[in-house]
Design brief:
CATH topology of the largest domain: D-amino Acid Aminotransferase, Chain A, domain 1
Distance between the termini: 43 Å
Number of domains: 2
Number of helices: 5
CATH superfamily of the largest domain: DNA ligase/mRNA capping enzyme
Strand content: 35-45%
CATH class of the largest domain: Alpha Beta
Largest sheet: 6 strands, mixed
Shape: elongated
Structural class: alpha+beta
Length: about 300
């Protein structure tokens, strides 16, 4: 199996005539050929997504792409993709980035734009489509990413080779992180090097049903932050959960009074209303009553 090339993280969008820019799709990376559709780790995706087992890949090529499901607005939805596992008749699509083998011959040393020309020549079934790209205009695409809610964008250097299994500076990923205020309603005790502090804080937002749990935030804290949160939360403990529904919260949770608001960044909100990849940013000096599902997530 050819392992997919990986992008390096880049802090901000940019314009450059020597680069082109593609949306960053929120799904499962794959490498596809007549022999099957394999995940980044070499697993057969047909075992998890039965519809993929019926995909017809053009003869003599190996393709790099992303397995996705689009929501009603045309944005990839990772939660909808997860819901498609083990189900037939789902709206799975393969967004294609690159051609690695053409006519049975390896073309990874060819320049990026030449490989893309080959990709555009393929007669593809409806469930496969090349990713759109924008030459030189990263800032314009980034405005669309922010407006429409894409996961981010990937910048690719013109003339670059495909480096299988390597994270290359010739591909740069700029991730779109959303921001929200959330109310701390508990915490999970830490383990390992966090055994003296805490593992994560449990957070929620006000809703019509009460305080709605939206996830656990364990990243973004400095050592000093962890110590400060441990000391503060230990003085705020209570016996009963402040969340209206504790389904999914681990039993070892420690509940606290809901007087502390923090700001987090996150990738997206799942179909179950949970934050994906939340990261602590700062404590926010705001009345917790103002932190609602509508104000933070438009729900």
């Amino acid at each position: 199996m050819i392992k997919p090339m990986l992008a390096t993280r880049w802090p901000r969008p940019f314009d450059d005539p020597d680069w082109w820019f593609e949306p960053k799709w929120d799904g499962f990376r794959f490498v596809a050929s007549e022999d099957g559709v394999l995940s980044r780790n070499g697993n057969d995706l047909a075992g998890r997504f039965p519809d993929v087992g019926r995909w017809v890949i053009p003869s003599g090529v190996v393709l790099d792409g992303e397995l996705v499901v689009m929501d009603e607005s045309g944005i990839t939805s990772f939660s909808m993709l997860q819901a498609s596992m083990s189900r037939q008749g789902s709206q799975l699509q393969g967004i294609l980035f690159d051609v690695l083998v053409w006519g049975g011959m390896q073309v990874m040393d060819d320049p990026l734009e030449h490989r893309r020309e080959r990709l555009d020549q393929l007669d593809l079934p409806g469930y496969l489509a090349p990713s759109p790209y924008f030459e030189g205009s990263g800032l314009a695409l980034w405005a669309t990413v922010q407006r429409e809610g894409y996961e981010g964008m990937v910048a690719k250097r013109l003339g670059s080779r495909y480096l299988p299994g390597r994270r290359s500076p010739d591909w740069r990923k700029i991730v779109h992180r959303r921001s929200a205020r959330v109310i701390v309603g508990g915490y999970l005790p830490g383990g390992g090097n966090r055994s003296n502090t805490l593992g994560s804080v449990l957070v929620g937002v006000q809703s019509d049903e009460g305080l709605k749990w939206v996830g656990a935030v364990g990243s973004g804290f400095s050592s000093r932050d962890l110590m400060a949160f441990r000391d503060a939360l230990s003085q705020m403990e209570r016996d009963t959960p402040p969340f209206a529904d504790v389904t999914g919260i681990p039993r070892e949770a420690v509940w606290v009074e809901t007087t502390l608001v923090i700001r987090v960044e996150y990738a997206s909100v799942t179909g179950q209303g949970r934050l994906r990849a939340p990261v602590f940013v700062a404590v926010d000096q705001v009345d917790p009553s103002e932190v609602t599902a509508e104000s933070e997530f438009g729900l």
